[in-house]
Amino acid sequence: MNFRIEAAELRVFDAQGVQIGVLKKDEALRAAQDAQADLVLIAPHAKPPVAKIIDFKKFLYQESKKDKEAKKGGVS
Fold first, then answer.
1. How do strand 9-13 and strand 19-24 relate by DSSP bridges?
2. What is the value of pTM for the model shown?
């Protein structure tokens, strides 16, 4: 996430899933800061690696809700 990303160039998507393009790491980080969000690496092994500009805390919250619903629905 953010400064832990090691790739020099990234294919960047915004929070709505719209591709912004292939950007240098510094440009991608600046775009994330401008959006007051985080730059999160989604597909690190792709060429170039894929990152998404999202609110990471909100993303984690939504994932935990999905996990709880899946556990609730799976138990009979």
1. antiparallel
2. 0.77
